[in-house]
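Subject: Re: docking follow-up (pyridoxal-5'-phosphate)

Dear J.,

Thanks for your patience while I sorted out the input files. As discussed at Tuesday's group meeting, I've set up the holo structure prediction with pyridoxal-5'-phosphate included as the bound ligand rather than trying to dock it afterwards. The sequence and the ligand SMILES I used are pasted below, so you can double-check that they match what you have on your end before we go further.
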Amino acid sequence: MALFSFLDVGFTYRSLQAEMDAAYRAVMDSGYFIGGKALDQFEADYAEWCGARHCIGLGNGLEALVLPLRAKGIGPGDEVIVPANTFIATWLAVAQTGATVVPVDADPATMNIDLDLVEKAVTPRTKAIIPVHLYGAPVPSARLRALAEAHGLFILEDAAQAHGGMDENRKVGTLGHAAAFSFYPGKNLGAFGDGGALVTDDDDLAKAVRMLGNYGSQVKYYHELQGGNSRLDPLQAAFLSVKLKHLDAWTERRREIASVYDRALSGLADLRLPEVAAGTQPVWHLYVVRHPKREALQAALAALEVPTALHYPVPNHQSGAFKSEYGHLSMPVTEEICSTCLSLPMGPHLSIADGEEIAARVGQALRSL
Ligand SMILES: *Cc1c(COP(=O)(O)O)cnc(C)c1O
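The structure tokens for the complex came back this morning:
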């Protein structure tokens, strides 16, 4: 058993048990297990918290990416720009619509999509771009919006890792035309099972996505579209409403730990720290450092009882899922990130003293290499 856990999903339940148990009982007593008041309430709470007009609860984060693309009519023959450096769901969402995935390499400082390269990747077939706020770090969006306006592109934020992140005082979820969120348990706002949501100001898109997630109907048994089934459980929605009230405090703790790491780890030989894009405020879903001897550093930290993880070990274009189509591509920055990245423990389950102790052990591990 490591001294610090990398992530502790149970922490949120233990710290809010009375409120969670009351939320559970309220849903059980309501008799609504699909839809109902608990879901309506969370959707209203989350839309307001993001500063958007609509929140539509969906089955998971992947569906929250797929359904708005479908609603926009994006499919075979269309191109969608995505970051090369992202969790595979971003790519899979585009592939599921039949559109062509157009990967763009990462900015070496922020590890997010390189905005200079985005501009060069736009063709007459480009229909959308999916900026991913990876590791909780918002992609600066003014340039993307200008590009989207010039070329008529749909901007769908992949905000699965970035609940509450800001760019120039606007919250993630309001930086493009729509945003996909995941409530997978390990995310900054996580349910106790799968969950996701689409957030948007666009009334027509909101209506279309809600229908696509509910068998293409607005009125039961009247099916206007060939939709599917992708709904957020009211029980999960009730838990999420409880957690949402505490999210800002949890984010604050993540920021404190990140600044402990920034301070204690800067200037250490060969260790590269994450850099924050000007004007943005990350929510530190992950704190990802890079080191040329990543495996040795990870082993040395494990020996010191500091668990770490890799986000992500294999670039999407070289993964089994995509290598036959994309394996020939060269994405040097993404490849470098995947071979050198190491995620340090991060989350509200850690105290600031824990963060200081972890940083000290990273220093110790580096000296032992
Ligand atoms: C988690 C995640 C998703 C998918 O969310 P699920 O709820 O697991 O389907 C999509 N994109 C990114 C960047 C993620 O981290």
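A couple of observations from a first look. The chain has two domains: 11-105+112-244, 247-368. The CA atoms of residues 12 and 42 lie 18 Å apart.

Let me know if you'd like me to rerun anything.

Best regards,
T.
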